[in-house]
Write a structure and sequence with these properties.
383 residues, Creatine Amidinohydrolase, Chain A, domain 1, Creatine Amidinohydrolase, 6-stranded mixed beta sheet
Amino acid sequence: MKHLFQERLADLRDRMCEQEIDTALVTDDDNIFYLTGYHDYLHMEFGRPTIFVVHQQGLSLLITPQIDENSAKSLAHCDEIFSWNDGMGDEWREKLPNLIKLSKKIGIETDRIPQVVLSYLHSLNSKEKIVNFSEILDEMRMIKSPEELQVARHAGQVANAMMKAGREAIIDGRPEFEVAIATSAAGTRAAAQLLDKHYKSNDMSPNTHFLQIMASGEDILKTHHRASNRIMKIGDPVFLCFCGMTNFYKFKLGFDRTFWINSARPEHVKVYETAVASQEAALAVLGPGVTAEKVHEAYADVIQEAGYDYPFRCGRATGYSFLEKPFLIKGDKTILQPGMVFAVDGSVLTSDFRAQVGDSFIITETGYEQITQHPKEVDEIII
């Protein structure tokens, strides 16, 4: 994998040269992982910044808390590591003045940089010297490498195991949280097998890292409801969403299904079928050379022609972050290219019901490759 990080760093420096950025300060966790392979250090929730400093000409330096120094030495592909300790000297600030003092233009991720780091930078430099370079990293991460696509396919296998286990755990008289336990256990076991077979690393956990998004009965209207103590019963619709839960090797996918226990109301089945049809319409358009907004347009047309309003965008790119660019939304004119990965949804919201299906896809030279799989036909999702 070392060559992959070297290539990414070289690509970043070429793009910095084009925009005359002398030094880049990378602070977003997912971007640091993308560029160095370093992950699972203490985050800003603990008030401890980690900063990856990249000079257009010169060495790269990772500034990280001393408590995570051993992890950094094991994982990070960079030239130097500087670790700092709480309350000792100037902590993470110690190296920054000398690292940027000769830089005429400094690139930061404006929408992701911790405020404490940004404030310190402003105390050292005029604001005119500090520019946003988030778009550089967003563009670099749009098209996945062959190694990333392998991870995406494996994430799909983990997601499939989770959905299968979730479906089997949905029964009358059972609390929602038992479904969440079943999906997490199945996903962890599937991930552990894949890690052992293909990655041989003890630094990446197979455990799922996100609370189960799940809703049943009247709570199905709550899009991001978490699995609760609610007891499921006959006639209940049940929604499972694995967005973020399929965090395999840090690669995140979109994957959603709607089920019913034993029976479904006919008017709700009609809504569900519209949701499925909207995803099918989007997939009829999805492929290389198409603009992102055209995929959304196909999805929205089906929903609106059926007399409903679409509840949100058709989808988004996925990868090491929950949300990546481009978005499948009105106004996004990005042209889809082979190697991009998308979550593509179909969804309808009414006053008393919400139906949603969603899957993840790799854009190929001729169309797409579906990497999450579970039945959507009505007779197969009534349990």
